[in-house]
Design brief:
With 178 residues, the chain is α+β, with helices and mostly antiparallel strands. Helix content is 33%, strand content 24%. Strands 1-2-3-4-5-7-6 form a seven-stranded mixed beta sheet, sandwiched between helices. β2 and β3 form a beta hairpin. The longest helix is centred in the C-terminal third of the chain and has 16 residues. It starts with a strand and ends with a strand.
Length: 178
Protein backbone atom coordinates (compact mmCIF):
# COMPACT_ATOMS: atom_id res chain seq x y z
CA UNK A 1 0.00 0.00 0.00
CA UNK A 2 1.31 3.41 -0.93
CA UNK A 3 1.86 6.03 1.72
CA UNK A 4 0.32 9.06 0.07
CA UNK A 5 1.50 12.48 1.20
CA UNK A 6 -1.52 14.63 2.08
CA UNK A 7 -0.94 18.34 2.57
CA UNK A 8 -2.56 21.72 2.25
CA UNK A 9 -2.17 22.89 -1.33
CA UNK A 10 0.12 25.76 -2.13
CA UNK A 11 0.44 27.88 -5.27
CA UNK A 12 2.69 25.29 -6.92
CA UNK A 13 -0.03 22.63 -6.51
CA UNK A 14 -2.80 24.56 -8.28
CA UNK A 15 -2.16 23.20 -11.77
CA UNK A 16 -2.10 19.57 -10.64
CA UNK A 17 -5.16 20.02 -8.43
CA UNK A 18 -7.07 21.72 -11.25
CA UNK A 19 -6.16 18.87 -13.60
CA UNK A 20 -7.60 16.27 -11.18
CA UNK A 21 -10.78 18.33 -10.79
CA UNK A 22 -11.30 18.98 -14.51
CA UNK A 23 -10.56 15.36 -15.42
CA UNK A 24 -13.20 14.30 -12.89
CA UNK A 25 -15.96 16.59 -14.18
CA UNK A 26 -15.24 15.65 -17.78
CA UNK A 27 -14.43 11.93 -17.52
CA UNK A 28 -16.31 10.72 -14.44
CA UNK A 29 -19.31 13.04 -14.31
CA UNK A 30 -19.65 13.72 -18.02
CA UNK A 31 -20.87 17.25 -17.34
CA UNK A 32 -17.70 19.01 -18.35
CA UNK A 33 -16.90 22.47 -17.07
CA UNK A 34 -20.04 24.43 -16.15
CA UNK A 35 -19.14 28.00 -15.06
CA UNK A 36 -21.95 28.40 -12.52
CA UNK A 37 -20.95 25.15 -10.80
CA UNK A 38 -17.20 25.03 -11.31
CA UNK A 39 -15.80 28.55 -10.90
CA UNK A 40 -13.70 27.35 -7.96
CA UNK A 41 -11.97 24.84 -10.24
CA UNK A 42 -10.77 27.62 -12.53
CA UNK A 43 -9.57 29.77 -9.63
CA UNK A 44 -8.79 27.53 -6.65
CA UNK A 45 -6.43 30.15 -5.25
CA UNK A 46 -9.26 32.64 -4.68
CA UNK A 47 -11.68 29.90 -3.63
CA UNK A 48 -9.53 27.89 -1.23
CA UNK A 49 -5.99 29.18 -0.72
CA UNK A 50 -6.60 32.85 0.09
CA UNK A 51 -9.56 32.71 2.52
CA UNK A 52 -8.20 31.69 5.92
CA UNK A 53 -11.25 29.58 6.79
CA UNK A 54 -11.02 27.60 3.55
CA UNK A 55 -8.58 24.91 2.51
CA UNK A 56 -7.65 22.71 -0.41
CA UNK A 57 -5.86 19.46 0.31
CA UNK A 58 -3.92 17.45 -2.22
CA UNK A 59 -2.69 13.87 -2.06
CA UNK A 60 0.57 13.07 -3.82
CA UNK A 61 1.64 9.70 -5.15
CA UNK A 62 4.83 8.83 -3.24
CA UNK A 63 6.34 7.20 -6.32
CA UNK A 64 6.29 10.21 -8.63
CA UNK A 65 4.94 13.16 -6.60
CA UNK A 66 1.94 13.55 -8.92
CA UNK A 67 -1.23 15.02 -7.40
CA UNK A 68 -3.75 12.18 -7.51
CA UNK A 69 -6.53 13.49 -5.25
CA UNK A 70 -8.10 16.73 -4.04
CA UNK A 71 -10.41 17.71 -1.22
CA UNK A 72 -11.63 21.19 -0.37
CA UNK A 73 -13.58 22.95 2.35
CA UNK A 74 -15.17 26.36 2.32
CA UNK A 75 -17.51 28.38 4.52
CA UNK A 76 -20.30 28.69 1.98
CA UNK A 77 -23.39 26.78 2.97
CA UNK A 78 -25.62 25.27 0.30
CA UNK A 79 -27.34 28.10 -1.54
CA UNK A 80 -31.05 28.15 -2.28
CA UNK A 81 -31.39 27.67 -5.35
CA UNK A 82 -30.38 25.16 -6.61
CA UNK A 83 -30.60 23.49 -3.20
CA UNK A 84 -33.81 23.18 -1.20
CA UNK A 85 -34.57 26.16 1.05
CA UNK A 86 -34.50 24.09 4.24
CA UNK A 87 -30.87 23.12 3.55
CA UNK A 88 -29.83 26.74 3.08
CA UNK A 89 -31.53 27.61 6.37
CA UNK A 90 -30.08 24.61 8.24
CA UNK A 91 -26.52 25.23 6.96
CA UNK A 92 -25.93 29.00 6.78
CA UNK A 93 -22.78 30.38 5.22
CA UNK A 94 -20.13 31.29 7.77
CA UNK A 95 -21.25 28.63 10.24
CA UNK A 96 -21.06 25.71 7.83
CA UNK A 97 -17.99 23.94 6.50
CA UNK A 98 -18.97 22.51 3.14
CA UNK A 99 -16.81 19.75 1.70
CA UNK A 100 -16.16 20.08 -2.02
CA UNK A 101 -14.08 18.67 -4.85
CA UNK A 102 -13.25 15.38 -3.18
CA UNK A 103 -11.87 13.66 -6.24
CA UNK A 104 -9.41 10.79 -6.70
CA UNK A 105 -7.85 9.67 -9.97
CA UNK A 106 -9.20 6.27 -11.03
CA UNK A 107 -5.93 4.39 -10.53
CA UNK A 108 -5.70 5.51 -6.91
CA UNK A 109 -9.23 4.75 -5.68
CA UNK A 110 -10.19 2.27 -2.97
CA UNK A 111 -6.98 2.87 -1.01
CA UNK A 112 -8.40 4.88 1.89
CA UNK A 113 -7.48 8.27 0.45
CA UNK A 114 -10.94 9.83 0.73
CA UNK A 115 -11.35 8.77 4.35
CA UNK A 116 -7.97 10.32 5.16
CA UNK A 117 -8.80 13.51 3.26
CA UNK A 118 -12.18 13.85 4.96
CA UNK A 119 -10.62 13.26 8.37
CA UNK A 120 -8.18 16.12 7.66
CA UNK A 121 -10.95 18.44 6.45
CA UNK A 122 -13.12 17.74 9.49
CA UNK A 123 -10.13 18.37 11.77
CA UNK A 124 -9.55 21.68 9.96
CA UNK A 125 -13.20 22.65 10.52
CA UNK A 126 -13.10 21.70 14.20
CA UNK A 127 -9.83 23.61 14.77
CA UNK A 128 -11.36 26.72 13.18
CA UNK A 129 -13.82 26.94 16.06
CA UNK A 130 -16.43 28.86 14.10
CA UNK A 131 -18.07 26.03 12.22
CA UNK A 132 -21.06 24.32 13.77
CA UNK A 133 -21.64 21.76 11.00
CA UNK A 134 -19.91 19.96 8.13
CA UNK A 135 -21.98 19.13 5.08
CA UNK A 136 -21.63 17.96 1.50
CA UNK A 137 -23.71 16.72 -1.39
CA UNK A 138 -23.17 13.89 -3.83
CA UNK A 139 -24.69 12.54 -6.99
CA UNK A 140 -25.88 9.00 -6.27
CA UNK A 141 -25.41 8.14 -9.95
CA UNK A 142 -21.64 8.14 -9.34
CA UNK A 143 -20.74 4.54 -8.62
CA UNK A 144 -20.11 3.94 -4.91
CA UNK A 145 -20.54 7.58 -3.86
CA UNK A 146 -23.78 7.30 -1.94
CA UNK A 147 -22.79 4.17 -0.02
CA UNK A 148 -19.42 5.69 0.84
CA UNK A 149 -20.89 8.93 2.21
CA UNK A 150 -23.54 6.98 4.15
CA UNK A 151 -20.65 5.21 5.91
CA UNK A 152 -19.27 8.57 7.10
CA UNK A 153 -22.30 10.70 7.77
CA UNK A 154 -26.06 10.94 7.84
CA UNK A 155 -28.44 11.83 5.04
CA UNK A 156 -30.17 15.13 5.77
CA UNK A 157 -32.01 15.44 2.46
CA UNK A 158 -32.49 13.11 -0.48
CA UNK A 159 -33.75 15.05 -3.49
CA UNK A 160 -34.96 11.83 -5.11
CA UNK A 161 -37.80 11.93 -2.58
CA UNK A 162 -38.89 15.46 -3.55
CA UNK A 163 -42.00 15.95 -5.67
CA UNK A 164 -40.88 16.26 -9.27
CA UNK A 165 -37.39 15.17 -8.21
CA UNK A 166 -34.77 17.00 -10.16
CA UNK A 167 -31.15 15.88 -10.19
CA UNK A 168 -31.55 13.50 -7.29
CA UNK A 169 -28.68 14.92 -5.27
CA UNK A 170 -28.20 13.49 -1.76
CA UNK A 171 -27.10 15.85 1.02
CA UNK A 172 -25.11 14.65 4.04
CA UNK A 173 -23.88 15.95 7.37
CA UNK A 174 -20.56 14.65 8.64
CA UNK A 175 -20.00 14.58 12.40
CA UNK A 176 -17.36 17.02 13.60
CA UNK A 177 -16.27 14.74 16.42
CA UNK A 178 -15.12 17.52 18.71
Amino acid sequence: MRDYNIRAAGPDDVGGARAVMLDTVYRDFGSGYVPRWHGDIVDPVAAYLVPVRHTLLVALDPEDGEIVATAALDSRGPAHTPNPRELAERYPSGETAQLRRIYVRAGHRRRGLVRRLVRELVAFAAADGGYRAVCLHTDPAVEGAEAFWRSLGKVVHDEREDPGAGQGIVHFEIPMGR
